[in-house]
Specification:
alpha/beta, 2-enoyl-CoA Hydratase, Chain A, domain 1, 6-stranded mixed beta sheet, 4-stranded mixed beta sheet, 47% helix, 16% strand
C-alpha cells in the first residue's frame, strides 16, 4: 500500500484518510483501488466497530478525480472502462462494508468525492463545506454504479438537479437536500464525528452490522424470505443481548463483546 490512503486506529474506531492534501485529496486510480481494499479489510475485522472516512487536512474531503490522469488513463472509452472497473469495485466495497461508516467532511466535497461520501452511512460536515458534481462541464456522465448511491440517498429528482445544473452549493442546501446528516461549525466537525463514532462503537457491534444489512436489503425491495425474517431474531442468542439487558436492569453501561 502507498501513503495515499492512511489508516489510524483508536480502539474500535478506524479512521481512513484520503492523503493527498497538496492536491486537496484529488483521487487517483491507485487511491480508488487502495480505498476499496482498505475498507474491505477493516469491514472484515470484527474488532472495528466504526470507520471514519475523511480527507487529509481541513480544506477538502475530496474534489473528485485528478483530471491530470485523464490524458494518460482516461483519454478514450476503452481506457475509461478499465479505469471504471477500479472505481466501481471500490464503490461496491464501500456499499457492502458491514461496519458503520461516518464521512467527516471538511471543505470541498464534489464529483468523485461526493460519490464516496454518499456511500457512507452518515455524513457530517462544517458550515463552510461545499458540494456538487459539475461533471457536465467536462463532457462526462456519472455512470450507473456511481450514480446509484446518490439516487438512493437523495432521490431521482434531486440527483438530476445536481447533475444537470452542475452547481456548487453550500452545506445548508446539502442538508436540505438530504446529502448530509448533520452540519456543525467548522471547528467542531472533528469533535462531532468523534462523538458520533464513539456512540456507534459503544453499541452492540453485531447489532450495528445487522442494522446495516437489513437497511440495505430493504432498499433493494422485493419480498423478504423466511430465512431473512428469521435472522432478525438471531440477536436473542448472542452474548451481547445478555450483557445488554443485564446492564439495563442493573442501571450500568453495557460492555459489549461482539459475540
Amino acid at each position: 500500500m502507498s501513503e495515499l490512503i492512511l489508516v489510524e486506529r483508536d480502539g474500535p474506531i478506524a479512521t481512513v484518510v484520503l492523503n493527498r492534501p497538496h492536491k486537496l485529496n484529488a483521487l487517483t486510480r491507485v487511491m480508488w483501488g487502495e480505498l476499496g481494499e482498505t475498507v474491505e479489510r477493516l469491514g472484515a475485522d470484527s474488532s472495528v466497530r466504526c470507520i471514519v472516512l475523511r480527507g487529509a487536512g481541513e480544506k477538502a474531503f475530496s474534489p473528485g478525480n485528478d483530471i491530470s490522469e485523464f490524458e494518460t488513463q482516461r483519454s478514450n472509452k476503452a481506457q475509461a472502462i478499465d479505469y471504471g472497473r477500479t472505481m466501481h469495485r471500490t464503490a461496491e466495497q464501500l456499499a457492502n462494508c458491514p461496519a458503520p461508516i461516518v464521512a467527516q467532511i471538511h471543505g470541498i466535497c464534489v464529483g468523485g468525492g461526493l460519490e464516496i461520501a454518499a456511500l457512507a452511512d452518515m455524513r457530517i460536515c462544517g458550515t463552510s463545506s461545499r458540494f456538487g458534481a459539475p461533471i457536465k462541464n467536462l463532457g462526462l456522465v456519472m455512470a450507473y454504479a456511481e450514480m446509484a448511491p446518490l439516487v438512493r440517498l437523495v432521490g431521482r429528482s434531486i440527483a438530476l438537479e445536481i447533475l444537470l445544473e452542475g452547481r456548487i452549493f453550500d452545506a445548508a442546501e446539502a442538508k436540505e437536500k438530504g446529502l448530509v446528516s448533520r452540519v456543525v461549525a467548522d471547528d467542531q466537525v472533528a469533535a462531532e464525528v468523534r462523538a458520533t463514532a464513539e456512540r456507534i462503537a459503544d453499541g452492540a457491534p453485531l447489532v450495528a452490522r445487522w442494522h446495516k444489512k437489513f437497511a440495505r436489503r430493504l432498499a433493494e425491495g422485493g419480498e423478504l424470505t423466511a430465512q431473512e425474517i428469521d435472522e432478525c431474531f438471531d440477536c436473542f442468542d448472542t452474548e451481547d443481548f445478555r450483557i445488554g439487558y443485564s446492564a439495563f436492569l442493573a442501571k450500568r453501561k453495557p460492555d459489549f463483546v461482539g459475540r
